[in-house]
Sequence to fold (480 residues):
Amino acid sequence: MKPFATAAEMRAVPRSAGFRNGGVSYWFRDVGLPDRRPALPGDADYDVCIVGGGYTGLWTAYYLKKARPDLRVAVLEREFAGFGASGRNGGWLSAEFAGSKRRYADTHGKGAVVALQRAMMASVDEVIEVADAEGIDADITKGGMRLVATNPAQKARLQEEVAELHEWGYWPEDLHLIDPCGEPRLQVDGAVAAAYSPHAARVHPAKLVRGLAAAVEALGVDVFEDTAVTDIRPRTGSRRPCAVTAAGTVRADHVLRATEGFTASLPGRRRQWLPMNSSMVATEPLSDVMWRHIGWERQEVLGDEAHAYCYAQRTADGRIAIGGRGVPYRFGSARDSNGATPPQTIAELWRVLARMFPVAAEVPIAHAWSGVLGVPRDWCPGVDLDPATGLGWAGGYVGSGVTTSNLAGRTLRDLVLGEPTDLTRLPWVGRRVRGWEPEPLRWAGTHMVYGLYRGADRRESDRVSRTSRLAGVAARLAGR
Ligand SMILES: Cc1cc2nc3c(=O)[nH]c(=O)nc-3n(C[C@H](O)[C@H](O)[C@H](O)COP(=O)(O)OP(=O)(O)OC[C@H]3O[C@@H](n4cnc5c(N)ncnc54)[C@H](O)[C@@H]3O)c2cc1C
Fold:
């Protein structure tokens, strides 16, 4: 496989007449951009102030209000609830937890890592149950997760990965190898191996975040939109911690940062988490004939074993939505708020789609979009609350935040309420990691790492049977 799409391939991508790129996501085009809630009117006083109205902020507000209806909780959101990755993602509500299991085990022991993995599996069901209880129709189908290998090196890696995960909290019934051509059928061209886990569901991300914001508001949380926080300040003496905005300052006993991929734009946090891009395309709906050919009746979320991996779902309205890394990072942690995807990335994603599903190669691409997610220097997600400063945070989910943010919300609730629980003892609580390197090292390093991963994928597609050494170099350089 070539690393980059050529100009001819870019032109060859079939696009709908009404093809749309950027503008948040297909998910929000499907449901319509929301009317914005009022902005913060001025100085205010709350018990808990949450900065960021994505899944992390909203789940935290939800569980706090459920536990303590008397708490006064505010969410401050720069744009609108769901504007960030929570309204743009691939809709994999899966039990995958990013980060090195060995790193967590070094500080908390192996049993704690197994407990974390089991908590992730329970979180998938928790999201589904709350959505059901709150009447949130988010096109949720718990069809599980299928990972496919399309060359011998990927196959070897998949087999090792399944065996390795059986050491860390997945029992054989939680993840196992399956016949890639077996029933229920999902016809991925060239699949030489596959694994299946029941612990995943397909969701419509915007419907979930929109419903969650409404549920939180119905519980009495004040959600202020068009309200950019310009600084978050810790407790000093008798002055409570606060979130500063142009309209006024919100003081609270606890101020919780839930800004994931946008964290670099807050003062003093430029190098804390790398804002990594992820890009997606969605086709026009496929015909019934095509769906009969492909199968995919179980509607499991689908991923591959490439180093520059892809993630896909069959949408409730019969499209294929597929995503991948694209341009991994912008110099200086800059962000592109319109979320447009470069033509080259669209062509690369289409090539992956056409390779996996040749029958869908002629189906026009109707939508493209991108978003940012947060990557800590050690690639390990975390959650914390410092009682001394009154400041808390959660994130750095490295692209697996749909389920993890729910676990984060319940953990932040327990930390705020000061109750040691099974959740606050999990090994991702209280992690401190160093920041990323200054520029231009940050930019050069990230691009080199993804260049190496693409090179490794190219070599492996030549049907070598082992993982390319380039991938090992990339992992060491990345500090994974
Ligand atoms: C294209 C893409 C595909 C993905 N696919 C998947 C997937 O399939 N499965 C999965 O598990 N994960 C996936 N992820 C990752 C997942 O979506 C995120 O980890 C998760 O949504 C993070 O939620 P969050 O609430 O922490 O952050 P966000 O949803 O990014 O929310 C942060 C919010 O903070 C607001 N904000 C930022 N700065 C300020 C400020 N200064 N003041 C006020 N508000 C501010 C933003 O506007 C934003 O709404 C994907 C991510 C992307 C980008």
Remarks:
- The chain has a mean pLDDT of 94.
- Residues 438-479 form one domain.
- Residues 383 and 429 are 5 Å apart (CA to CA).
